[in-house]
Amino acid sequence: MVKSEKSKHATVKLYWIFAGILCVITLVEWLIFRNEELRSNATFMVPALSILSLMKFSMVCGWYMHLRYDNKILMKVFGFSAFMAAVTFGILLLAI
Amino acid sequence: MSAHEDVVHSTVTGVDNRKLSMWVLIASECFLFGSLIVNYLINRDRGLAGPTARQIYDIDITTLSTFDLLMSSVAMVLALHACQNRELQKFRFWTGMVVLGGVIFLGFQFYEFSHFVHLGLGLTTNVFGSSFYLLTGCHGAHVFLGVLWMSSILATSFVRGENWFPSLPLEVAGLYWHFVDVVWIIIFTVVYLFVYI
User: Fold this and answer.
1) Which of B41, B148, B164, B188 has the fewest CB neighbours in a 10 Å radius?
2) Is residue B183 packed enough to be buried (19+ CB in 10 Å), middle (13-18) or exposed (0-12)?
3) DSSP three-state, residue A69
4) Contact B78 A78 (CB under 8 A)
5) B84 touches chain A (CB under 8 A)
6) Which CATH architecture has domain B7-196?
């Protein structure tokens, strides 16, 4: 028997800091979209919003889902499948 | 919760089997939602009848529902933190907030679907409508399941009394809830914010 890993998780203060960052990123995404010149500019929108989305994705997975602190096998299970799904469907999108 | 429930059983991987099972489920769901998102992207502009995505999306409402789901994720980690520290009132309060966040999100989705149907976009109007409702409806069904799961934990807390602190079950439920949030982060960007691209 092994002890649960609660002591390795982030603090309440850190959870609130990330909540604030997640809200600010969502607000920035909304503000970018509200700009009528920018929202139809694929050259700007796709990389900018993809990076912002990826930041939110990483924060939720890393800290809220505890991947940063948990056993590395969990990161491998999730990382491999997320990567394979992205590659598979990316190729499919490009092919069609 | 009795003392022996605070520990997890030793496994070959070093991870509790229930937690590992949830991660395997999440891994498989990556492909489910990946296929639904690609299906939507392929069919978005192929509708021959009915309104288009650009005509009906209300990004302001969707941004609010995104905030709501993100905040429910915060409530989820705070509920788990309180549970692990055996703080009963906080555990119940934040678990209730997760349920409330989920219900509000479903309310937003119900409003959105009703509004779209009112504007003439039904499930069978065109391929855009079918792929949109399939993707967001599947996500909504996941949120609904999460609400039921968290409600059952909250209800059990009142039934089992003040010594029940289900850290591991709550952590596993939390993984599911956060994954539903992560999927929405992607849907919000790819489906809604990229609508003019």
Assistant:
1) B148
2) buried
3) coil
4) no
5) yes
6) Up-down Bundle (1.20)
Sort out which chain A residues have CB atoms less than 8 A from B178's CB and list them. Answer: 60-61, 64-65
ipTM above 0.85, yes or no: yes
Shortest Cα distance from B22 to chain A (angstroms)?
10
Which residues does B70 contact at the CB level (< 8 Å), separation at least 6?
A19, A22, A23, A26, A56, B181
Structure tokens at B163: 């010594």
Kindly report the nearest CA distance between residue B57 and chain A, in angstroms.
Answer: 12
Cα separation, B1 vs A6, whole angstroms: 16
The span from the CA of B180 to the CA of B177, in Å, is 5
Domain assignments of chain B as residue spans, ordered by start: 7-196
Query: Over the stretch B34-91, which tens digit does the pLDDT of each residue have?
Result: 999 999 999 999 988 889 999 999 999 999 999 999 999 999 999 999 999 999 999 9
Burial per residue of A35-52, b for 16 or more beta-carbon CB atoms within 10 angstroms, e otherwise: eeeebeeeeebeebbeeb
Q: How many CB atoms lie within 10 A of CB B89?
A: 9
What's the pTM?
Answer: 0.92
Among A33, A75, A93, pick the best mutation site for testing chain B contact (most B Cβ within 10 A): A33
3-state secondary structure of B7: strand
